[in-house]
């Protein structure tokens, strides 16, 4: 899910929206002059094929890096990144995930990724080139309610700045991603909804309640 104001980058952003379910997710593709950005891939093969069609068109228009940012490591958000060979063979592809989620993906951790959503007990490891929100890379902010918020700013080749916020609760590695006037919030609004979401591996109610405060602070104080 994303929230956004009238921003040029948001208007260039094709969303891949699905009827809500627990086996796939929305995905977003953002075109900049310097790179192609993806926020999640989802798990649906048809959705992934459409994403790849657009990526192929953009690469023919101008070769550039492809960067996939994962809002968290649950398999419904990244299954096609793990399984789709054409996607994984894209030239100059990099995957970015919060550091604990990155470890789970690189280890093929079927518990942390909730692989049973896709009917499996094992998943193939996914290399992560950019481990986000490591202590050396992020800054620590204090919100109005005294809750700590970790933020990392990434300068893109296009000259834009992408900002990542640590928003745990649904999973330890959950993040929100901001580019311009668009804020991608992953499963934040979905994360308290039973059945099957509240209580799954990594779900943390106290952290989620604090993240509500973090999200309010982001919306009130960030551009």
Characterise this structure.
The chain is an alpha+beta fold and 223 residues long. The protein is 27% helix and 24% strand. The chain contains six helices and twelve strands. The protein has helices at residues 8-11, 45-61, 75-83, 85-88, 99-107, 205-221; strands spanning 2-4, 15-16, 27-31, 36-39, 66-69, 93-98, 130-132, 139-142, 148-155, 161-166, 175-179, 182-184. The strands form two sheets. Strands 1-12-11-10-9-8 form a six-stranded antiparallel beta sheet, with no helix packed on it. Helix 5 (99-107) links the parallel strand 6 (93-98) and strand 7. The longest helix is centred in the first third of the chain and has 17 residues, at 45-61. The radius of gyration is 16 Å and the shape is globular. Residues 1-6 have low confidence and may be disordered.
Strand composition percent: 15-25%
Mean pLDDT: 89
Helix share, percent: 25-40%
Morphology: globular
Strand order in space, largest sheet? 1-12-11-10-9-8
Radius of gyration: 16 Å
Number of helices: 6
Distance between the termini: 18 Å
Helix vs. strand class: alpha+beta
Instruction: List SSEs in N-to-C order.
Output: EHEEEHEHHEHEEEEEEH
Poorly predicted runs: 1-6
Number of strands: 12
Main sheet attributes: strand count, strand direction, barrel closure: 6 strands, antiparallel
């Amino acid at each position: 899910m994303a929230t956004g104001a009238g921003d040029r980058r948001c208007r260039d952003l094709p969303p891949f929206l699905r009827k809500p379910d627990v086996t796939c997710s929305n995905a977003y593709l953002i075109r900049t002059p310097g790179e192609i950005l993806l926020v999640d891939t989802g798990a649906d093969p048809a959705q992934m094929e459409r994403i790849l069609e657009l990526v192929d068109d953009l690469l023919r228009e101008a070769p550039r890096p492809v960067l996939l940012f994962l809002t968290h490591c649950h398999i419904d958000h990244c299954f096609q990144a793990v399984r789709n060979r054409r996607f994984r063979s894209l030239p100059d592809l990099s995957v970015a995930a919060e550091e604990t989620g990155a470890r789970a993906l690189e280890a093929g951790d079927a518990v942390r990724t909730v692989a049973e959503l896709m009917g499996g007990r094992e998943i193939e490891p996914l290399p992560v080139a950019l481990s986000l929100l490591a202590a050396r890379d992020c800054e620590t902010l204090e919100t109005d309610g005294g809750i700590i918020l970790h933020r990392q700013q990434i300068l893109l080749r296009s000259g834009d700045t992408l900002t990542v916020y640590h928003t745990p609760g649904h999973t330890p590695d959950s993040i929100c991603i901001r580019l311009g006037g668009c804020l991608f919030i992953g499963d934040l609004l979905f994360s308290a909804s039973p059945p099957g979401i509240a209580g799954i591996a990594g779900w943390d109610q106290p952290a989620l309640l604090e993240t509500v405060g973090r999200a309010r602070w982001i919306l009130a104080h960030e551009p």
